[in-house]
Amino acid sequence: MGCAVPHWRPSATLATLKARAELYGSVRSFFAARGVLEVETPILSHHATVDRHIDSFAVSAPRATGAAHVGFLQTSPEFAMKRLLASGSGPIFQIARVFRAGEQGRYHNPEFTLLEWYRPGFDHHALMDELAELLAHCGIAGPCARLSYREAFERHAGFDPHMLDACTLRERLRARGLAEPQGLSAEEIGDADFWLDLWMSQVVGPCLGTQTPEFVYDFPATQAALARVRPGTPPLAERFELFWKGVELANGFHELTDADEQQRRFEADRRWRAAHGRSDLPYDRHLIEALRAGLPPCAGVAVGLDRLLMLKLALPSVAETLAFAGDRA
Amino acid sequence: MATVSTNEMKAGTKLLIDGEPYAVIDNEYRKPGKGQATNTIKIRNLKTGRVLERTLKSGDTLEVADVEDKDMQYLYNDGEFWTFMDPKTYEQVQAGKEAMAEAAQWLKGEEIVRVTFWNEVPLVVYPPNTVELTVIDTDPGLKGDTATGGSKPAKLETGAVVRVPLFIQQGEKIKVDTRTGEYLARAGK
């Protein structure tokens, strides 16, 4: 109370700002040496994400300007970068400012920085290799262990996540004495992914990468997002996440290249949002057209650079890595 | 009925949950990259002091408790009620035994205290963080005992009993931390 810092002052120290600049320098030298092209794509788009649990900021032009449209701040540069890939860019990376409404906490700021890159010809395992090499190049010690989503749950939750239904997942969470959210709908209670997310964010995730960073790969097909699904029993999404000190740092896909399947997923997400009172937004039709024209087989990943810097410098929250965090932006 | 959403709940926000007033101590936002976000709030029951955790879906709202903190001056105790005065408006209020559970043993009169009101009734009275009180009863210290080692109980003028170093004598004024009940230092006479 008595030690409040005036709001005009930065959230980060000068030493941290220098460390951020160094990190960006390391990232750029890493990709320059590998022939991965740095690109920039629009921050303000006609389209929005329709991801069920990510909300875009809508931006409207002043009426006096005569500009009729409403735009959206990007929540990730993914769609635009895939359009570049489909037009023959080859491997590309971007350090992008992204915006997600309502995400505020120790590890979240509504405006943050993603490092995102795409590698034609890679699968998710080859991209995990490269991400581990990038971390080493940025002075973050490996080795980066790799375990499947199933192994992560077996090790830290004590069960096979592909075998249990929503009801059992819920009972086990209760038996562990973990508080479950109040006021759940019948649909949420019956949704295994809802309970797996809770297990991941409250139990499994915090146990991952306690020493050196750790990859989790091959997610349930129902959590594929924009990853391709590998047929099998059960079918698995070729998706990975990176955890360090219990914090999720990166999310990557062996990318879905099937336009029809992508469109079905967008439509399903959009219906879900409408049914749940979330804003109904236009998904990126250009992306569907780009996939139709042909996205080369590739893998892509997004890394939260603020969190990476926070962990590298052992800071307590992402706010300390930002010149001005959300509360004083 | 005023409500507050999970992302507006800060340390100090007052909530009404199951008919009881709570203060938020901490609010942890968790979100798997592609999944449902939750907020786990750590809250203190303002009546019982008990601390507990609740998990909410991000974006959910809770009712705000009509709780207000006021700095007031302690006037007197009539055996049943403790009377306090707002130094700005001279308005007086009375607090009962339950609200005084923390504060009663530290107050002798005229101190400025923090009074928490719930629906305009005093809910908890917090004593100043430190008070200076006179020792009215303690065993004489043993010769040779100085600043180091050993302590003994001492009764203060308000009735509180605290542990003091052996060199403290009856009639001395001492400074005490009311949050821990610990002796801090000798106070000037």
UniProtKB/TrEMBL annotation, chain A:
Any one GO molecular function term: lysine-tRNA ligase activity
Domain Aminoacyl-transfer RNA synthetases class-II family profile: 20-329
Pfam families the UniProt entry points to: tRNA-synt_2
Catalytic function, reaction form: D-beta-lysine + L-lysyl-[protein] + ATP = N(6)-((3R)-3,6-diaminohexanoyl)-L-lysyl-[protein] + AMP + diphosphate + H(+)
GO cellular component terms attached to this protein's record: cytosol
Keywords for the protein's UniProt record, in alphabetical order: Aminoacyl-tRNA synthetase, ATP-binding, Ligase, Nucleotide-binding
One annotated GO biological process: lysyl-tRNA aminoacylation
The keyword Ligase is assigned to this record: yes
Listed PROSITE patterns: AA_TRNA_LIGASE_II
Superkingdom of source: Bacteria
Oligomer and partners: Homodimer.
Name listed for the protein in its UniProt record: Lysyl-tRNA synthetase, class 2
Lineage, highest ranks first: Bacteria, Pseudomonadati, Pseudomonadota, Gammaproteobacteria, Nevskiales
UniProtKB/TrEMBL annotation, chain B:
Source domain of life: Bacteria
Keyword set, alphabetical order: Cytoplasm, Elongation factor, Hydroxylation, Protein biosynthesis
Principal subcellular localization: cytoplasm
Listed GO CC annotations: cytosol
Domain Elongation factor P C-terminal, residue spans: 131-186
Family, as annotated: Belongs to the elongation factor P family.
PANTHER family linked to this entry: ELONGATION FACTOR P, ELONGATION FACTOR P (EF-P) FAMILY PROTEIN
Annotated HAMAP family: EF_P (MF_00141)
Protein name: Elongation factor P
Species per Swiss-Prot/TrEMBL record: Fontimonas thermophila
